Amino acid sequence: MSRERVYLFDTTLRDGAQTNGVDFSLDDKAAVAAMLDRLGIDYIEGGYPGANPQDTKFFAEKKDLAATFTAFGMTKRGGRSASNDPGLNALLDAEADAICFVAKSWDYHVDVALGISREENLDCIRESVAAARGRGREAIVDCEHFFDGFKANPAYALACVKTAYESGARWVVLCDTNGGTLPEEVSRIVAEVVRVVPGDHLGIHTHDDCGCAVANALAAVAAGVRQVQGTLNGLGERCGNANLTTIIPALKLKPEFAQRFDVGVSDEALASLTHVSRVFDEMINRAPNRYAPFVGESAFATKTGIHASAIAKNPATYEHVEPERIGNRRKVLVSDQAGKSNVLAELERLGLSANRDDPRISHLLDRIKEREAEGYAYEGADASFFLLAKDVLGEVPEFFKVERFSVNVERRWNAVGKLVTVAEAIVKVRIGSEIFISAAEGNGPVNALDVALRKDLGKYQSLICGLELIDYRVRIFQGGSDAVTRVLITSRAADGETWTTVGVSPNIIDASFQALMDSVVYQLVRVGATA
Ligand SMILES: CC(=O)SCCNC(=O)CCNC(=O)[C@H](O)C(C)(C)COP(=O)(O)OP(=O)(O)OC[C@H]1O[C@@H](n2cnc3c(N)ncnc32)[C@H](O)[C@@H]1OP(=O)(O)O
Ligand SMILES: CC(=O)C(=O)O
């Protein structure tokens, strides 16, 4: 069977910009476009020139991209000529290789939203495509509400598609604008459209309102379309668009697609996809979705003993694709659902070697399960797990001993008559035969304790220099008959390495102190300190 090309069209900077809470600066737009270009995306839709000054500016200069840089905008308005339509002219003046027109293809929208005759809407499509072609641009027509339109009036929806194609549009894109269509309907309707317009001139644009955007896009490819629109991490209006970080691996790695189609994303670029997805979230200040298919942190994580045991024998037992192909990694988590295989896998990852028959491994597993029953959670606290494992293996020196600590929180009027809350902590530490007592103020009790603990650790002080607390999370839950507090602290060392530690106690200060202690001890172990 000869291979066919499927083209990837990214609309992160246009439909993605329609996401509630997302705003791209001009620099963001340039950075995202460059990232998409490196990935091998065929079309990059940069925005809507003429709609706002920023998008107009983004299209003011020609872009140095391998991808087809695309401007988006609506077809000319009814009741005026193409040359007399300022919106259309802003599109034609934009420095873009292609223009993607959004056109009405649902008769109901033509009647209600445009209020023009159906024939006039076809003229708007025809004349807009002709104008774009006349200015040397590739023309693309997004048929808005195509699936709803087809269900209501198939003849008219098809007339819009046909008009666009016959006017010279390179691509006619079938849009599930309201996101209400299901995969079976997409397959059935696309099969009808490919009888009218060849599939290598058809695209698909789906929204996720039914949780089917990716499934619908893939169903459309299977049914014959050869251009897929989507966004990075599924950004987009309302519930989002089809997620390209799912579609790309599906097209490249799932045999039903990979055996038939080529895409512009190379294997090397595919291996950068997890990184691209995370960098993009970082840019828009959003926490990455750890459960995202292929690229999420949990996409290849396993918690249970039975799975971990089989994965140790052959990862294919519980993985549908190899995580490395998308630049992700396998994670075997240690928790109360774990067996020895999880523990051994995690020890190996942490560079701690142990034998499956070593009785200390069973002891470690028992300790983990006991501690998780008390409220500890090691899945997200890699450094505390490392210390617990090393402790059971007899490898953590006693660097120092905390003889006592105290914290005082006081609300008082300060010297300029302002009501302030201040926290003070004192920590008494023994190192060998020496005693160190440090006091510190902080903006809260945990901060004060943190500063006091790290203020003077004698001979270890230079080794913890630059260590900082960068995240602090608290969860209160019922453990046995009492409320228990779990604190997770993420720390960063001067060399940039980060780690997370956990503390548990009915008392939030005590739980925080345990997590702080683990963080300091982890740093000392990490840099090879000796007692
Ligand atoms: C499905 C989608 O995601 S489509 C993309 C939607 N994205 C955007 O709208 C973002 C950018 N949009 C904008 O900044 C503005 O809407 C603009 C600049 C484009 C237009 O602004 P305005 O001129 O103030 O019009 P407004 O936004 O109120 O309404 C849109 C007008 O375009 C008309 N229109 C909508 N789609 C089309 C179309 N495909 N062809 C022709 N006219 C259209 C509407 O009927 C309406 O006309 P009316 O003013 O006569 O009622
Ligand atoms: C064009 C577009 O964004 C849509 O129809 O959803």
Q: SSE layout and pairings?
A:
Elements: E1 4-5, E2 7-10, H1 26-39, E3 43-47, H2 53-58, E4 68-74, H3 86-93, E5 98-104, H4 107-114, H5 118-134, E6 138-144, H6 146-152, H7 154-166, E7 171-176, H8 183-193, E8 202-206, H9 213-223, E9 227-230, H10 244-253, H11 255-258, E10 261-262, H12 267-270, H13 273-283, E11 301-302, H14 305-313, E12 331-332, H15 340-349, H16 359-374, H17 382-392, E13 401-413, E14 419-431, E15 434-442, H18 445-453, E16 468-479, E17 482-492, E18 498-505, H19 508-526
Helix pairs in contact: 1-13, 5-7, 6-7, 8-9, 14-15, 17-19, 18-19
Acetyl coenzyme *A binds next to strand 5 and helix 4.
GO molecular function: (R)-citramalate synthase activity; 2-isopropylmalate synthase activity
Catalytic activity: pyruvate + acetyl-CoA + H2O = (3R)-citramalate + CoA + H(+)
Keywords: Acyltransferase, Amino-acid biosynthesis, Branched-chain amino acid biosynthesis, Isoleucine biosynthesis, Transferase
